[in-house]
């Protein structure tokens, strides 16, 4: 737990609690005993505290923190820190690996800190819904000032050793043997006065500006926190650091108790464990196939087909993980553009050496030797099947073939090959090199080995891989469908798009449904609806009632917007007009693209088609993605820049668009909707409950095997607010399943033809039998 040894006058206490040396009560008790022993021993004149194995203590043990032991754990940690702080013999912390949370706080309570260059320090408690409650909010500002302390504690960001040295958080960076250096350093400071080494005795450097600093940061923190209580509570604790140390510690303790007992802390700790637990996958249809039994194929080289935004992002992720990549793109301009993007991103990350691992090509035969291919072409089944047919012939027989699709049928794609067991879905999220989620989809014939391979790939490239079954939209996009539909029905009834967005953003999402569609592109869903024959390129299918499809309520507003060319924000922002656009297109209009400098003459393009709308459609459905992307942008810059909002040139701030508001008004009138006032609560409930209800269907059908898989998908891929734990956790722990059921019953009685509001049989069953999502495999054992 804490090994005691002496080197002459130096006592060394090495925390030994593998793998991360986290603080349990036993570890802390062992530290207290060691400290007392060293203090008692007259031959000991200094003390070194270090971590055995790979790291200095990475903080309090979360398993223990989640149970009834939390309060004693905290008081033990505070006791250790007090022993250390007030010790009459100098205490030196020797830091390597990750000194996090309580580990870093112990170091701050010590008199000296040495670190190896690779060490990382941080106070990440805010991510767990807590604050650094063992003196971190009081000692850190005494070293770095209130302003920096607020920044470091409310972000929980990593502090690298060199930065820690600059900030005065460590005294020396040690290049050689850390323990040896620490022992000789301790010896060198023996007998020196300790008073000025005790951080608790210092004053906060910017104490006179504390109110000013807090005021200046409060707004930003509130905006970033989006409903999370921990960040602002951290600020309150830091504010108390200008008080005498004991008073500040008392304030910190009160605020820590408040946070530790909050549902948000429990939710965020659930998120921490769920992020790790998804790695322990099992096949929803056959539990015998799981992370223990299935062996992944070793992947050293990956082919990426398609160098659009997704393909480039995927390539960056793979290169950063040290894999060899062959990037194939049939359009030279697009390929060059992607190379420039990849180079720039890797350079920013100081990882330019990784470029040597990249081969770019326009020739499929270059893929003959790769271990795996990730296809990232345009989201079109015909095109994807064609690519897979080619890949099946060209790649080696044992190569895994993955499709980066956001919802197309993996079995149909697999059927284009003679190796359906090696075909799998890997749904990356945009930007693919930034977003952590990787939704991995198995088809009917995907082998256990192939599943294990893509789950392993997720870990290798630093993503959170979640295994799901094959259905339209998989888990994430499937659940988004009802949410979007309900948002549209709210427009029909009288809410404006920005009101829906505001309510959802106040709940904690970074973006409401309409701003999100503007960003992602309204045409994505439109194309999918056309493929599903819910609409056509020219309007509703013949003999179809405007507001119904297959007996279900349908809102055609997004289709109408697409027909007007209102496809999304990308088009407004990605290009620059050389000459003013004219509505009638009687003159030549030239448009140059910032992205690749290409110039289009719209009139010449139009000469080949009857109407502008037809031209948009021809290009949208063309398989030539590069042409599509450019021309779509060209047309859109002439037309309206977004679906529902307008954006000033160069800005991403969504502004209500009077044209759209008028259009919605006319639509309401035409279809006899009476505008009514709808509360934010109703907006949030209808949108989110219909999404969560779909989650129950997904579980019922075995598309996801555990509620935590759904939570992780929403947290890491869709911006679901972390402090609520994810949709399924939130509804079970915060709302209550019974309340969800009653609300859905109320809403579905009011809107009998909104099928997604009909409570799922699984939900009904759980409420009737008192069942819980935990029984379906959440991490409850750890809560
Ligand atoms: C009561 C005291 C009150 C207040 C003061 C102090 C508060 C605290 O200290 S709160 C805790 C602060 N520390 C953290 O938040 C660290 C969290 N851990 C991490 O960030 C990472 O695990 C890591 C950077 C330390 C290591 O990352 P990596 O190498 O990628 O490993 P894993 O994340 O996969 O972790 C391996 C294994 O360890 C488990 N684990 C990690 N941290 C803790 C912890 N603090 N307590 C208990 N267990 C922990 C993690 O779940 C993994 O377990 P499995 O292999 O079973 O999945």
Automatic annotation (TrEMBL):
The subcellular location is: Peroxisome
Say which family it is in: In the C-terminal section; belongs to the 3-hydroxyacyl-CoA dehydrogenase family.
Query: Which reaction equations make up its catalytic activity?
Result: (3S)-hydroxydecanoyl-CoA + NAD(+) = 3-oxodecanoyl-CoA + NADH + H(+); a 4-saturated-(3S)-3-hydroxyacyl-CoA = a (3E)-enoyl-CoA + H2O; (2E)-hexadecenedioyl-CoA + H2O = (3S)-hydroxyhexadecanedioyl-CoA; (3S)-hydroxyhexadecanoyl-CoA = (2E)-hexadecenoyl-CoA + H2O
In its UniProt entry, the species of origin is given as Branchiostoma belcheri (Amphioxus)
Is the Hydrolase keyword given for this protein?
no
InterPro entries associated with the record: 3-OHacyl-CoA_DH_NAD-bd (IPR006176), 3HC_DH_C (IPR006108), 6-PGluconate_DH-like_C_sf (IPR008927), ClpP/crotonase-like_dom_sf (IPR029045), Enoyl-CoA_hydra/iso (IPR001753), NAD(P)-bd_dom_sf (IPR036291)
The segment(s) forming the 3-hydroxyacyl-CoA dehydrogenase C-terminal domain are: 473-575, 683-770
Tell me the subunit arrangement: Monomer.
Q: Does the keyword Cytoplasm apply?
A: no
Tell me which GO cellular component terms the UniProt record holds. peroxisome
**Pathway the protein takes part in:** Lipid metabolism; fatty acid beta-oxidation
This protein's name? Peroxisomal bifunctional enzyme
SUPFAM superfamilies this protein is in? 6-phosphogluconate dehydrogenase C-terminal domain-like (SSF48179), ClpP/crotonase (SSF52096), NAD(P)-binding Rossmann-fold domains (SSF51735)
Q: Which Gene3D superfamilies match?
A: 1.10.1040.50, 2-enoyl-CoA Hydratase, Chain A, domain 1, NAD(P)-binding Rossmann-like Domain
EC no.? 1.1.1.35, 5.3.3.8
Which GO terms fall under molecular function for this chain's record? Answer: (3S)-3-hydroxyacyl-CoA dehydrogenase (NAD+) activity; delta(3)-delta(2)-enoyl-CoA isomerase activity; enoyl-CoA hydratase activity; NAD+ binding
Show where the 3-hydroxyacyl-CoA dehydrogenase NAD binding domain sits. Answer: 302-470
Its Gene Ontology biological processes?
A: fatty acid beta-oxidation
Q: Which UniProt keywords apply?
A: Fatty acid metabolism, Isomerase, Lipid metabolism, Lyase, Multifunctional enzyme, NAD, Oxidoreductase, Peroxisome
